[in-house]
Specification:
The chain is α/β, with parallel strands linked by helices. It has two domains: 2-157 and 291-323, Rossmann fold (3-Layer(aba) Sandwich); 175-276, NAD(P)-binding Rossmann-like Domain (Rossmann fold). It is built from twelve helices and 15 strands. The strands form four sheets. A five-stranded parallel β-sheet has the order 8-7-9-12-14, sandwiched between helices. A four-stranded parallel β-sheet has the order 3-2-1-4. The longest helix has 20 residues, at 295-314.
């Protein structure tokens, strides 16, 4: 897949006209698709790239770095400095662009006080998805650190459209056909709209898009599963909550649950029903990212984020940029 990934990266860079020549980027390096994070920055022309990582359940930091180095070597690229740990003040002080990648979070005062004047932080998601646990926007604004979201559905990249395929893939992995199924999509936002649209496109018999409790219990008996994808839902799904598993199972003992977002009491729920994935859910945090659908959304979003940063640095307006 490496050849395909490189081809996709080149295409996205050309399409968005990204040239980071003379700039230094601080990002991460991770397992699987995320091994390409520093590769993308270098292919965008960054003069220097710092890539942070740590040991995770997906792989050791050493193996992650070795995989990324292998890709860089295949492309004849150097200029990447890897770091294992939580804080490298030298990297922060030299970076022109700081991504909000997982291994850099949280980007708060403890880190950003070392950032150089004019450093830019492009969020690899839209402004409305902002999480204070990722970046301290108030500190950025007070200290003249430009912070901006990335319009994920710019016509050249259409990253957000992959939310629909992700919903279908998760449902099928959970054991549901989608075709001919009765589904309730618990959401009141764009995630739910796209999931609903794609479930119907794939032949679902019925898709109810709602966050109405009464409607949930009224229709529970006829459902195959509930797909939870409301980004802003802060309440808990579990034993004694607005989403009462016992009551729902009295209405439908075979009811299943697939979750993209949400504070789920997973250990409790999976004793009673089919819950997928077997991961403790969190509000405003995806259980699976769009990389689960393939390379394209990840690559396009990374390159688009660099275009956002580059536009801010050059003082140029661009529709991708969603400034705070």
């Amino acid at each position: 897949m490496e050849k395909r990934a490189i081809q996709k990266i080149r295409k996205a860079i050309e399409l968005l006209d990204v040239d980071l020549s003379g700039l230094t980027v601080l990002t991460e390096v991770g397992s699987n698709e995320y091994a390409y994070s520093p590769v993308i920055a270098r292919m965008c022309g960054a003069e220097k790239v710092f890539a942070w990582t740590r040991d995770t359940r997906f792989g050791s930091a050493t193996s992650i770095i070795n995989r990324s180095k292998e890709i860089l070597n295949h492309q004849g690229l150097d200029g990447v400095e890897f770091y294992m740990g939580n804080l490298n003040t030298e990297h922060l002080s030299k970076a022109d662009i700081i991504t909000n990648s997982g291994f850099l979070r949280p980007l708060n005062e403890d880190k950003l006080k070392y950032a150089k004047p004019g450093a830019v932080i492009p969020l690899m998601y839209e402004k409305w998805e902002y999480r204070s646990s990722d970046v301290d926007a108030e500190y950025c604004i007070k200290n003249n650190i430009p912070l901006a979201g990335t319009w994920e559905n710019h016509p050249d990249i259409m990253v957000f459209e992959h939310v629909g395929p992700l919903a279908v893939k998760m449902a099928m992995e959970a054991g549901y056909e989608v075709y001919g199924n009765h589904i309730l999509v618990w959401s009141d936002d764009h995630f739910g709209e796209l999931a609903t649209k794609f479930f119907l496109k794939m032949g679902a018999k019925e898709v109810i898009h709602t966050i109405n409790n009464d409607l949930l219990y009224e229709r529970a008996a006829g459902l195959d599963f509930v797909y939870i994808c409301d980004y802003s839902e802060e309440r808990n799904f579990g034993s004694d909550s607005f989403f009462n598993a016992d009551r729902l199972l009295e209405l439908n003992p075979a009811l299943g649950l697939v979750h993209l977002f949400g504070n789920l009491e997973t250990e409790y729920l999976k004793q009673k029903m089919n819950v997928y994935p077997d991961i403790t859910g969190k509000a405003s945090t995806m259980t699976y990212t769009l990389t689960k659908t393939g390379l394209t959304p990840y690559i396009n979003l990374q390159v688009a984020g660099y275009k956002v940063a580059l536009s801010i640095i050059r003082g140029e307006a661009h529709p991708l940029v969603q400034l705070f």
